[in-house]
Amino acid sequence: SNYGFLKSLQVLSMSHNRISGSIPPEIGNCSSLEALELGSNRLTGHIPVQFSKLSRLKKLDTSHNKLTGEIPDQIGKDSSLESLLLNSNSLSGRIPESLSRLANLTALDLSSNRLNSTIPSSLSRLHSLSYFNVSRNRLEGEIPEALASRFTNPSVFANNRGL
């Protein structure tokens, strides 16, 4: 794939296209990319760690695919991110603490995955966050008080066996 040669590309919107296979890591070389919309396809494999090189990325949407593996810690380096939509996949492991460094994040949707850790209390530092959903996972432990008081609708935490 030649996505890496698209240095001036700002928006890559390929949602709802029945695209299958893995996400090409070369997309991480599209240094001007501000929006990457890959939702509602048939993508498999992992979220490429190379996405951490996308310093201008504001929106990452890989929702409604068949992605597996853990959410890369490196996503926390995408300091411009405003919207991170990873819902409705088969992502597992923990919610990375590094997400708490995304100071501009307004939307975080990790629902309908297989995440099986606790919710990091550091996420309460995301003061711009106005949409948050971790429902339908395998999360455990206490819901951080600062998040529970900001997101009072219980549905955003629902259907986690240990919360």
From TrEMBL:
Membrane topology classification: Single-pass type I membrane protein
Record-linked SMART domains: LRR_TYP (SM00369)
Main location: membrane
Alphabetically ordered keywords of this record: Cell membrane, Glycoprotein, Kinase, Leucine-rich repeat, Membrane, Receptor, Repeat, Signal, Transferase, Transmembrane, Transmembrane helix
Gene Ontology MF: a single term: kinase activity
Top-level taxon of the source organism: Eukaryota
Keyword field contains Transmembrane: yes
Subcellular location: Cell membrane
Domain (Disease resistance R13L4/SHOC-2-like LRR) ranges: 6-138
One of the record's GO cellular component terms: plasma membrane
Entry similarity comment: Belongs to the RLP family.
Protein's recorded name: Putative LRR receptor-like serine/threonine-protein kinase
Organism: Noccaea caerulescens
